[in-house]
Write a structure and sequence with these properties.
Length: 261
């Protein structure tokens, strides 16, 4: 079988990316959360459930890799951690994270692993349902929440952008340009390889705008978070195009940044 040089180069790059340790992947964006050293950590929300309870924080960031980072989360009242990343070739990272949590005395019932992919999404209905599931866990947790993927940029960005729309009323342009592109989504991280940015744009960007449309039509809201919206023709058509290889996404951070209303 003959493989074109360009195709071979892309396959080689993808293989190297899959085989390299995710320990090497560090977001260049610093934490903006006081007392939290995990890179690319940012506060999404802060609410007071009742008068006698601590503020419930919702924080996004990179995967915690050090015991002191886990202890920082504990000191901030974080009780729920959502690992929003596919296991893939880095399943050892999830085990390492759980070991860190156990070492810190964490209740692992508060650890939720939603195996969400960052590229080659063929079933947009399932990807939508996984995102809704994560949103429900973020909403229903009694204590503070920390959500992450690997470096807290792409999958975490998608989830955070939809969160801003569902719970805080942001429009899609603002969520995309500020919450996603402002924290390293796709090509907005200049250190990210072009093939990674392209793969993210082809899968996560159309998923975000499809879900954003459902939020803006009020089919997806904070009260119900009904995964039935993921069965709509919008997601089915995206899945068909992805399987056919005809899904083309032209919306980019560079084109939309600064267009927030």
């Amino acid at each position: 079988m003959f493989i074109k040089p360009k195709t071979f180069s892309l396959l080689l790059l993808l293989s190297l990316a899959a085989c390299s340790s995710s320990q090497d992947l560090i977001s260049p964006f610093p934490s903006t959360v006081e007392g939290l050293s995990i890179p690319n950590s940012h506060l999404l929300d802060s609410t007071k459930p009742s008068f006698d309870q601590k503020d419930k924080l919702v924080i996004r960031g990179m995967r915690p890799r050090k015991l002191e980072q886990v202890k920082e989360l504990q000191s901030m009242g974080v009780e729920t951690i959502i690992n929003f990343r596919a296991a893939g070739s880095h399943s050892e990272d999830t085990e390492a994270e759980k070991n860190l949590l156990s070492e810190a005395g964490w209740d692992l019932n508060g650890f939720h692993h939603i195996e969400f992919p960052w590229r080659n999404i063929k079933d947009f209905t399932k990807a939508c349902e996984m995102t809704v599931s994560a949103l429900k866990k973020m909403r229903d947790s009694e204590g503070s929440v920390f959500v992450h993927c690997t470096v807290g940029e792409d999958r975490t960005g998608l989830l955070s952008g939809i969160y801003r729309m569902v719970f805080q009323g942001w429009n899609s342009n603002r969520a995309f340009s500020q919450e996603m592109c402002g924290h390293g989504f796709a090509e907005s991280n200049p250190q990210k390889p072009a093939f990674v940015s392209s793969a993210v744009r082809e899968s996560l960007t159309p998923l975000f705008f499809a879900m954003a449309s459902e939020v803006e039509k009020k089919n997806l809201n904070s009260r119900t978070l009904d995964p039935a919206i993921c069965q709509s023709s919008t997601f089915q058509n995206l899945s068909i195009k992805a399987k056919e290889g005809s899904l083309v996404e032209t919306r980019t951070c560079s084109a939309l940044q600064g267009s927030a209303l």
